Amino acid sequence: EFDTFVFDPPPAPLDSTLAVGGVPTSRSILRVALPPGIRDSAQIIRATLLLVPDRPAEGAPADSFFVAARRVQSDLGAKSVLAGPRFNGDSTHVGLAWMRIGSTDTVSIEVTPILRTWAADTTLPTVFMLQQFTRTPTGLVEGANLAEIRFSPSSDSAFRPALHITYAPRFRFEIP
């Protein structure tokens, strides 16, 4: 399916917000620094990625979309290889959050399976690719609508992206 239209995109903004969606469809890379004690030897019980919108989600009023945090297989910057061939509902590679146009609520994305994968294989890069997906009759498609959301960058100390992790530290066996 090919849709064509003429669009002269405005120049990129000078701010450093994390843009997801829009025209042309943009993605953002979010690198995570996990402490070695959590990554190497803790049992991860729950992990939630929290993203604070910089401005309300934009798009047609009837549109709604998903923000996806996908696991990256190899970190090559803008040309990073995503885990899994295509999004097919496998939650080990992606976490999803439903967004409505005009929403300014903090976005919570459940990423527990991704962090468990990072803990199981410490050679994998700890990087999320943030994408916009829309539900269509054929499944979830990236860039099927013009919706866009921008999140506060990591340089904003009050509203930077956060990863809340609930974990159980390794139990140390000792001789009494």
Short description:
The protein has helices spanning 36-41, 112-120, and strands spanning 18-21, 28-31, 43-51, 64-74, 81-82, 94-100, 107-110, 127-136, 139-142, 148-151, 162-168. It is mainly beta.
Describe this structure in words.
With 176 residues, this protein is mainly beta. The chain is built from 2 helices and 11 strands, in the order ββαβββββαββββ. The chain has helices at residues 36-41, 112-120; strands spanning 18-21, 28-31, 43-51, 64-74, 81-82, 94-100, 107-110, 127-136, 139-142, 148-151, 162-168. The strands form 3 sheets. Strands 2, 4, 5, 6, 8 and 9 form a 6-stranded antiparallel beta sheet that branches. Strands 7-3-11 form a 3-stranded antiparallel beta sheet. Strand 4 and strand 5 form a beta hairpin. The longest helix is centred in the middle third of the chain and has 9 residues, at 112-120. It is elongated and about 70 Å long. The model has no long low-confidence stretch (mean pLDDT 83).
Helix and strand arrangement:
Layout: E1 18-21, E2 28-31, H1 36-41, E3 43-51, E4 64-74, E5 81-82, E6 94-100, E7 107-110, H2 112-120, E8 127-136, E9 139-142, E10 148-151, E11 162-168
Antiparallel strand pairs: 1-10, 2-8, 3-7, 3-11, 4-5, 4-6, 4-8, 8-9
